[in-house]
Design brief:
It is an enzyme of class 3 (hydrolase). One of its GO terms (molecular function) is ATP binding. The type I restriction/modification system is composed of three polypeptides R, M and S. Helix content is 37%, strand content 18%. It has 559 residues and is an alpha/beta fold. The protein has four domains: 168 residues, tt1808, chain A (Alpha-Beta Complex), CATH 3.90.1570.50; 71 residues, Actin, Chain A, domain 4, CATH 3.90.640.50; 193 residues, Rossmann fold; 76 residues, no CATH class. Helix 13 links the parallel strand 18 and strand 19. The termini are far apart. 34% of the residues are buried.
Length: 559
């Protein structure tokens, strides 16, 4: 079944550039019909359907069979019972313990009855297609209450994804609330393998979302559910389209096993489509630049424009981590501002690689970290990196294959450090993340983000984030247009708006003076400064260009 074409540059991206929507029927469909059709689509995509696996007693023998196949072993009955009791379903294990077994402790040293020791893998993370994906429905289980679940996806026999379906017209939040109820009543019952659940999918056919099994889940966390999307951030909402893309076997396994982070606070973070898209494009760019020997050149890097508050640091962390797994890369530098060394992300790096973060101001610590072969990742500040390059003329690292990831590539990083970087390092690939890129039109003749880091590899801008409700909401007051400028103020066509005479009209002194006067007259009320003792909110005035800012500045000063 090929309902989509991956983008031309690579067949390995799970976030698609192109996708042709599947035609939908408007006919009425009951919940059971929807469920049957969903399972049929999964089977057509290569899932193995187990209609008889509907209770806990049937689940363990299936897990045993899958682990036999994955690990090329045969447990005796007594060995299997011991494996279950000491590792797979250890008494007292919580959701956190089970999640850790999926992300960190998925390899268990097991001593067989004859004394031999073998690594038993729950999952194969290096070769994803080796993991067996199965689908079951109407699984029944009792905790404080008896529940029956719609559809569950098993990976090597373990329930990792739970799908709750509602018929069209029913609010999707009802499916969310149902999962919340199951979590309290039966998912986490004693000896329930459903503690292994990593991901939930909810759908009413026309709207489909996914969310992680974060350990603190309550009714307010519906805001943390996410839509799947294409590379251009177009949402994929319909269940049929969602199934063809998100539930493609390699995609689902990648989301579960590659694009998730179990963080230092024991919370599972599953990446959003735009975060995955950016990470995939960085890894593709490193690979293709290495093949073409494009290191040092702009073609060997790129920039990621992800709006403020959209989780850039998690994306850059994941990109840096996955870059360390490339055989030909010797070191990955994660470059941050000085203040960011205190961030929680630094704890993630510390956990991943104990010697990666060096908080001291001296370059000696950085140099020591560079010399450690077992330390593939280095977290440093731009200043410390620059000092190192100025004081050390000949380091082994300068000739090695190196990736630089700048967590927030501001103009401050365009200067001396960049010149030194290009002088010293002979084989590097660099990538910059920014929420505020510098374009030619606002660069004032200086460098732009693209001229320093390379072309834009992915963007997720403020309008995308507002639509997805992934940033703080905006309150918009729209003021009546000034009669003299009505035509231009109501114009929607971007080309017309960027025409020279229209730009001039928008910057007409009368218009600027009128807007400035309105702001001065209403500022105290709009920012809640009129209440007794109210300090009010700060405000930000955004305009289209540096020239516009200067004109408004003069108008405010005169008024």
């Amino acid at each position: 079944m090929t309902h989509y074409n991956t983008i031309a540059e690579s067949n390995n991206f799970i976030i698609l550039d192109q996708y042709t929507k599947i035609p939908q029927s408007d006919s009425y469909q009951s919940e059971s019909d929807l469920q049957r059709e969903f399972i049929r689509d999964l089977v057509n995509q290569g899932y193995h359907y187990l209609p008889k696996l509907t209770n806990p007693q049937a689940m363990l023998p299936n897990v045993r069979e899958q682990l036999h196949t994955l690990n090329h072993v045969q447990f005796t009955d007594s060995e299997w019972q011991r494996f279950v009791e000491t590792f797979l379903d250890k008494p007292g294990d919580s959701i956190i313990d089970k999640t850790r077994k999926i992300h960190e402790n998925y390899i268990h040293d097991f001593v067989f009855d004859d004394g031999r020791i073998q690594n038993i893998y729950l999952l194969d993370k290096k070769n994803l297609p080796r993991n067996k994906v199965q689908v079951i429905e109407q699984f029944e289980q009792k905790g404080t209450q008896a529940n029956r679940y719609d559809v569950t996806i098993l990976v090597n026999g373990l329930p990792l994804v739970q799908i709750e379906l509602k018929k069209r017209g029913v609010a999707i939040r009802e499916a969310f609330n149902q999962i919340h109820r199951y979590s309290k009543e039966s998912f986490n019952a004693e000896h329930s393998l459903y503690k292994y659940l990593q991901l939930f999918v909810i759908s009413n056919r026309t709207n489909t979302r996914y969310f992680a099994n974060t350990t603190q889940r309550n009714k307010n966390s519906f805001d943390f559910t996410m839509h799947w999307a294409k590379a251009d951030n177009t949402l994929i909402k319909d269940l049929k389209d969602f199934t063809a893309t998100f539930f493609e076997k390699n995609t689902l396994l990648s989301v579960l096993l590659k694009y998730s982070v179990f963080d230092v606070n024991n919370t599972l973070l599953v990446m959003r489509p735009y975060q995955i898209a950016a990470t995939e494009r960085i890894l593709w760019k490193i690979n293709s630049a290495y093949q073409a020997k494009h290191w040092i050149r702009l073609e060997g890097g790129g920039c990621i424009w992800h709006t403020t508050g959209s989780g850039k640091t998690l994306t850059s962390f994941k990109a840096a981590r996955l870059a360390t797994e490339l055989d030909f890369i010797d070191k990955v530098f994660f470059v941050v501002d000085r203040k960011d060394l205190d961030y929680q992300t630094m704890k993630e790096y510390q956990r991943f690689s104990p010697d990666s973060v060096n908080g001291s101001d001296s370059t000696a610590g950085l140099k020591r970290n560079l010399e450690k072969d077992d330390n593939k990742i280095i977290v440093t500040t731009i200043d410390k990196l620059n000092n190192l390059m100025k004081t050390e003329s000949d380091l082994a690292i300068y000739k090695k294959q190196v990736v630089f990831i700048f967590d927030e590539c501001h103009r401050s990083q365009f200067g001396e450090a960049q010149k030194n970087l290009r002088k010293k390092f002979k084989r590097f690939y660099q990538f910059g993340f920014t929420g505020t890129p510098i374009f030619p039109q606002n660069a004032l003749g200086a460098d732009t983000t693209a001229s320093v880091f390379g072309r834009e590899l992915h963007s997720y801008v403020i309008t995308d984030a507002i639509r997805d409700e992934k940033v703080l909401k905006f309150k918009v007051d729209y003021n009546d247009v000034r009669p003299k400028f009505k035509a231009i103020e109501t114009e929607q066509d971007q080309q017309k708006l960027s025409a020279a005479e229209n730009k001039q009209a928008l910057l007409h002194p009368d218009r600027i003076r009128e807007i400035a006067q309105y702001i001065l007259s209403n500022f105290r009320q709009k920012t809640h400064r009129l209440q007794a003792g109210g300090k009010g909110f700060n405000a930000l005035f955004a305009v289209s260009s540096v020239d516009a800012a200067k004109l408004y500045y003069e108008a405010f000063k005169q008024l």
